[in-house]
Automatic annotation (TrEMBL):
Pfam families: Rib_hydrolayse. GO terms for cellular component: plasma membrane. It comes from Strongylocentrotus purpuratus. GO terms for molecular function: NAD+ nucleosidase activity, cyclic ADP-ribose generating; phosphorus-oxygen lyase activity; transferase activity. The keyword Transit peptide does not apply. This is ADP-ribosyl cyclase/cyclic ADP-ribose hydrolase. The keyword Transmembrane applies. InterPro entries: ADP-ribosyl_cyclase (IPR003193).
Length: 324
């Protein structure tokens, strides 16, 4: 193979990579089949809570076509904000009252997901219909013909948004989902924050700050409970960035919510979260008081069972029948 031939083979890939300052994984292969399988699994309530009767009326083929149709052959950095509107009409991010839980700055520690999976009293966006369908997938449109005829780029997608990619395809999706997730929240809601996040537990640029908190309706939301937790992944305590309920960005957030006429409470190191996370991060320096006793053993078993169930659900989605 000559140099010219190699250049022709690689040129589409190189061209795409040059176009994005922060290139990431391309569209997940077999994404259509994955989305349909997850949709069928969710609408038949095979995952347990939340389970609403309206789910059975969802047409999964139409929903997936709407999801992908809004971004096919579209520049991944110029996705219109309404690209997913039709999709969200079919599968809105609905939760049961008193259960809506937001999180910010704790990604990668599985804190909110663990909490929501072990109890029906909390639901995070990843447990909602659209959140479950799109979770951990990659997708974006293609505008250069490198799309295998589907209008999707399977080679590379821009990662995150910024000055050079303000309307990132995935960012637009999660922004819209987060907006609607907050709008439908009723009665008590919860937000989990990382007390040791550099720059502050509450970021003015997070989805919670830009899409969720401003869309909470004070006419129907009774209370916003802030749960402030440590960073369990740190090998040693990092008190330099530690915030409490009475200082820093957390205090700013409380004042912001109260200015919206929302009632706010704040709790540091809530025991329910500490027990569960210390089962996952047993060596964390914050888990000393929780290192003894049956609760940790029980929580450890719960975490292991959750991992097994989650793995089984991922491996078995494509075996689900598409008829009731």
């Amino acid at each position: 193979m000559g140099i010219y031939t190699i250049f022709l083979y690689l040129s589409p890939i190189l061209a795409v990579n040059v176009a994005y300052n922060n290139p990431g994984q391309g569209t997940t292969h077999n994404i259509t089949d994955i989305l349909i399988g997850r949709c069928e699994e969710y609408r038949k309530c095979l995952l347990g809570e939340p389970c609403l009767p309206s789910y059975r009326n969802v047409n999964c083929l139409a929903a997936v076509e709407s999801f992908l149709g809004g971004i096919r052959n579209v520049d991944p950095c110029s996705t219109p904000y309404n690209a997913y509107d039709e999709f969200f009409k079919m599968v809105p991010p609905t939760t049961v009252r008193n259960t809506t839980m937001f999180w910010s700055g704790v990604k990668g520690t599985n804190v909110p997901q663990d909490i929501a999976q072990v109890t029906p009293y909390f639901n995070v966006i990843g447990e909602t219909f659209p959140g479950y369908m799109a979770g951990n997938l990659s997708w974006c449109g293609a505008t250069d013909g490198n799309d295998t005829g589907l209008g999707l780029n399977f080679t590379v997608c821009p990662k995150g948004k910024g000055a050079t990619c303000p309307n990132n395809t995935k960012a637009i999706f999660w922004a819209k989902a987060s907006n609607m997730f907050a709008t439908q929240a009723v009665d008590d809601v919860y937000v989990v924050l990382n007390a040791q996040k550099p720059g502050g537990a509450f970021s003015k640029y997070s989805f919670f700050a830009t899409e969720e908190a401003p869309n909470l309706n004070p006419d129907v939301v009774k209370n916003v409970a802030i749960y402030l937790i440590p960073n369990f992944t740190l090998p040693i305590p990092n008190e330099m960035y530690a915030e409490t309920c009475t200082n820093g960005s957390v205090l700013y957030l409380q004042n912001f919510l109260m200015d919206m006429n929302l009632n706010v409470t704040c709790e540091e190191n809530p025991k329910e979260i500490m027990w569960l996370q210390c089962a996952r991060f047993a060596d964390s320096p914050y888990c000393g008081p929780y290192a003894k006793g049956n609760p940790v053993v029980a929580a450890s078993i719960v975490v292991i069972l959750l991992q097994v169930v989650f793995a089984m659900s991922l491996s078995g989605w494509n075996t689900i029948s598409t008829t009731l």
